[in-house]
Amino acid sequence: MRIMTLIAAAAMLTPTMVAAQSRPVSLEIVASGALDVKPSRVSMVISFKGEGDTQAEAERAVDAKMAKVQEILKAENIPASALGETSVDAFIKAATDSAESEDPDMASDAAGSGKPKFSVPDVKQLTVTSAAVAEAVKAKLEAIDVTVGSPKFDADEARILTAQREVKALALRSARTDAEVYAKEMGMRINRVVRISEGGSGPLMPGIQTKLQQVITQGPQAFARMFKRTDGSVTVETSIVVEFELTK
After folding, report:
1. Domain annotation for the chain: domains and CATH numbers
2. Which of 40, 141, 212, 241 is within CB 3.0–4.6 Å of 197 for a Cys-Cys bond?
3. Predicted TM-score (pTM) of this structure
4. Which residues contact residue 175 at a Cβ distance below 8 angstroms, ignoring those fewer than 6 apart?
């Protein structure tokens, strides 16, 4: 009689144990995606001057220097339209007017010292397509005594918007790949995606912990790279939380 009772009890427990073993498992993954978006334009202010014993000589000298600048641009396959006016045109005009009305006594002093009496400045804005082109032309311009300002990088808003959408897909694919690793190890499979969140449920946004770890392990350089890239690229990235349901 006891044997029959034990068999009956086992028969009652077996469905419960099977149900427990086949119960879905909830898996939460934090995943990231990132893309670099290069600038669509790089602009630099270039400046130079022409000098001479007369105003006309100084103007001819500055025209000659401009011709050399244009030769360099042509050699680098940069169109002439890449050179444009800047917001300092008013300053140039004032400086030119000042040279034209220079004090005769000062001009005499300059003549006595062997220095040119007149100096005519010119300033332009040069716009190119990439940081590499900017760096190459900068070296050649400086070789002919042209002063080249720091590059200003202009991001393409359309490219950034496209990248923002692409990194979401990258993050989601990364999350699923990680989830498949867990499922395989447990002898299970991914049944469905339960939830996707870009905000997370904790005090920190998803992926912030990873960033903090990078700063700790790689030092200040890692922190600097988050904000400034030498080639002017903008890193577009996102982190998401994805909850999967795993089943047998």
Report:
1. 25-39+157-247 (3.30.110.170), 41-96+118-154 (3.30.70)
2. 241
3. 0.57
4. 29, 30, 31, 240, 242, 244
